[in-house]
Each structure stands twice: as C-alpha cells, then as structure tokens.
C-alpha cells in the first residue's frame, strides 16, 4: 500500500522534462527571448530572494542550459536530461493512469480491494475446502459417519448393510457436494425405481440412512447391480456419477474398519467389527465394478456369457466353476461349451479372457535382523514378504487336462481340498534368508502319471525320500558340529559332486568356502540394491496404473488393484492393516509385519489376496508359526529388577489366555 501511494505521488514533471515549458517560452523563441525569460524567472525563484525556491531554480538552470549550451542540448535530445546519461536504473512498466495524481484515490482503493478483500477470501476458501477432505479426497464428515456405523455394529456386517452406509456418503448430498444435481423429476422417477427393487429397506429411520439423497443413491446402486434400465437423461447420469465414486469410498471404508479392528486388538476392546466386516467391504468393490451380485457365477464377468450359457459349464463330463478352470480347457472344449455363441462373440470372450490376471502368489515369513530368521520367539516382529507376479490368463490356454494345476488355490480356498487320484503332493518349500546360498532346483514335470505308472511313481518317490534321509543321517554323523543352514548346503553339494562318491577321502573345502563367501557378498549387494529401489519407489509415490479392467458397466476406465493382509481365521482377527497394491504391472513385493503371539505354541495364520475389480480371483495362503519361548533377559543390574517388578504389577491382572488360538486348542475342542 505504501509503495502504491509513493508511485501515485511521483512527480510527473521529472518524468517529462520539457525546457520550453519550464521557461514558459514557445518552440520558435530566439536565444535573446530565452535569456530574457530565464533572467526574469531567476529573479523570482533565486534562493537568495524572499520568494526563492531552490528546486524550481535548479529546474530553470537545467532548462536554460538545455536550450543554450550545445552539449546540454544534445544530451537533452538523446537522453531527456541535459546532464547526460545517468546511472542504470530499473523500473516497472505501469500504466500512465496509475501515476497520475488525480487517480491516486482510485489506485489505493483498487489495491485495498485486491490485497485486503479478494486475496484473503481466496485463501480462506482454499483452507476451508482443504480441511473438509482427508488425504484420499474423502469428506471428513463421510469418514466420521463410517466410524460411527462400523463401531456401532460389533459383529459382522452384511453386504447390503454396507451398501446402505456407502449410499449415505456425504459426497452424494447437494449440501456437501456442489456437483450433485437435484432434479424435479426425482419426485416421480425415484419412487417408481424403488418399487422395482426388492428389499431396499427404504423405511429405515436411521439418520442419514433415511435421508432422500441416501435412498436415491442406494436405489441407483441396486439398479446398477440388478441391471435395471434407467432414464438416460436423468437417473442414468446420476447413477454413473455415484458408481464412479464408489471404489475410493470403499477404500476409505476399508481403512476405517481396519483401524477399528487394530484398535480393538491393541487395547483388548470387545464388541468391535471383526474380519468378516472388512472382507464384505472389499467384496463390494468388485461387485460394483462388474455390476453383479456376489452370488452370481463369476463366469458371467466374461462378455456375452449370461444365465442361459451358464448351464453348459456344468455337465456330466466337466464342472467348470471358475474362470481359471475355463481358461485351462482346450480350445475345442471352450468352443463346445459356448457353442450357442457365434464366432465373433466367441472371439470376444477369448480376447477378454486372455488379458485377465493370473496372479502367482508367493509368501515367505521370517524374523528379520535376527541370528536365526526361521525361529519365531514370543513377541518377535514377524515379517511376511508377499511376492505377486502378474501374468495374463492366456498362459493357461491349451493346457492339457492331465497336467497338475492347483486351481483350488486360484479360487481362494484357504484349506487344501482332496486332490484327484494320481495328483502328486507338492512339498512345502522354505525360502532361505538372503545371506544364505540358495539351492539350485531342477525343473519338475507337471504331468500326471498314467494309470499304469501310478504305483511305479509312488515307489520311486518313496525310494528317493529314503535315500535322501539316509544321506542326511550320514552327513550328520560325519559332521556333528555343522549347523542346520550348512547341512543343507553340504547335502546339495554332495548331491551334485557325484565324482567323489565311493571315496574315503573328502574333497578340499577351501574352494567351496571361498565361493560361498563370494555368493554371500553378491546376495548382500542384491539385498541392498533391492532396499534402495524400494526406497526410491516410496519417495516417488504410489503409482495408480496397472492394467485396465474389463468392466463394460463401469462408467470409466478402471485399473486393477489388490488388497494384501494377514489374518487369524480362528480368532477372526486382523493382524496387519490391508495393503492396497495399486501398481502391479508385472511384479510387486509387499512386506507385512506383525507381532508374534506372547505365548508359545503352534499358530496358523492366513495371508489373503483380494481383488477390487474381479470376483473369484481371491487367494489365500496359510503360514504356520511354531512360537518358542522368548529367552530370559539377564537381571544383573538392580534397575532392571525394579522395571521387572513394575511390569509384573501392571500386568498382574491380565488373563493368561492368549489372544490367538493355537492348533492344540482346536484339537482339544474337537
């Protein structure tokens, strides 16, 4: 403001130096007339006179020099100043009306309007909008409502109840969202739509579930799931807007429920949502993306497959229940099942099927930064590393029916079902830590043995197991001081070095030790580079691009996202918050950490993978933890004894029953 005032009071005459105007002479005046005018004005404005003015006298002198002295005149004509070029100066190109004295009041008023009214108003509006939303661009009022309803329902919440809460989100209310359109036609169209949808529970009196905007949004979501035709000019536009916002609102629901469950687990708070509630929230997302209820056949996610075609998937020869099983069939069998479709529609089915995800789900659990990472002690931090490898479903095409394919795992069944006769059981593989040498494994054939070779295969496998057991016993007797990690390496080396079989002398182990040290260094370098790459990914931020989902009923392009978490199915407890995988293009590695139980025993936990875009693509993997008793802390110092006494007093009232359920407890109950 002060700068604007100074600029408005800028002397206009200095900016426009005109010697003729200063001396009050015309442009065609002679030198005599100029001298006469200068003398006359000098007698008036000379500083020694009573009416003198030093500033005006200096201007008169410069004007006289500019008109009488040749050099001063040249400087005035070139630089606008009889003294010649001055020092370098910088200025602001302002309009002339700003520096005029008669406009100074208007200039000050304009600056006051901009800097004292408009700018504070803009900043205030931005700040008000920013505090209304969470980090995921969800209204805080919506998040608060989610917490209220999920905390109010202590047990599992049904999917339809989750839909009611989702429809009551404040994003669908005109008062909180200016993009919502309230149409006069809603008075007639919404009640007519409600009559077409059964079990909408529109008479519920809970606020805000009973509000008109909530009932309308709920009816539009049910219409989307039931494929009810809507008016394309009114309700269909509103429905597309609501459906488009549902995925990230459901993600906010998952975050709220997981925080409540983890809070109940940490503070032993009873009557809070269990794991079924959060899984129903996750299940709702692919339902909305694919526009189908959970009880529908997942094969209907393929194009042109409807209720009339489903009956051909279940026949006496074959019972195809999942998309993975259908993809593993031969081309002739696929065409036979969909024989009612013309060739162009069948090609559409195969094209969409070939691009659907086929996830390889690998899980490794360990205790990082421990001497023995495979030994779990009470209270230790267990790290579960989940590796997701994304492939296209086209890799299952033209797979022979006799090959051993574990499709039950792809369907998400947690327990291992009974395999068909002749399938070979896969041995559990334990991944070694990164600093230990990894064993080289040969490729195994996945084909099943024929009926005439079943007994020979079983006998051969039993012989191999017996020989491996004998070899291990011999190694143990020869080298009793070797630890478990070195035994596996030695047995593998002995199996590879067949040249030394039958010899009494052992080969020199110095070369092997040197190579093992080099391998350890390379493994450690790979481990460090992997950590650096993960850190760079975190700094760059989570990407939101993976693969486009085939969802013809969803109003915009949808990317494949996944949830990964660890749960205890027996106690219905969530051990880790669900990690939202949003950048699974080819491969993604996720680390989930939780605290091991405080009581020794054998525990079975489940690592779950759930899709937010497709139904029937969920997977689970069980991990068993043999929790040992934690080593006692030495109490040599007296202050440690005092701390132990305080802990005993604080935890003396706690029950001795574990928050988890061991496998022995389950056997006792049976």
From TrEMBL:
Pfam families registered for this protein in UniProt: DnaJ, Sec63
GO BP of this protein: post-translational protein targeting to endoplasmic reticulum membrane; SRP-dependent cotranslational protein targeting to membrane
Compartments it resides in: Endoplasmic reticulum membrane
Gene Ontology CC annotation, any one: Sec62/Sec63 complex
Record bears the keyword Cell inner membrane: no
Classification via InterPro entries: C2_domain_sf, DnaJ_domain, Ig_E-set, J_dom_sf, Sec63-dom
CDD domains recorded: DnaJ
Transmembrane segments: 105-128
GO molecular function, one term: protein transmembrane transporter activity
Family annotation (PANTHER family): SEC63 DOMAIN-CONTAINING, TRANSLOCATION PROTEIN SEC63 HOMOLOG
Name of the molecule in the record: J domain-containing protein
Lineage: Eukaryota, Metazoa, Ecdysozoa, Arthropoda, Hexapoda
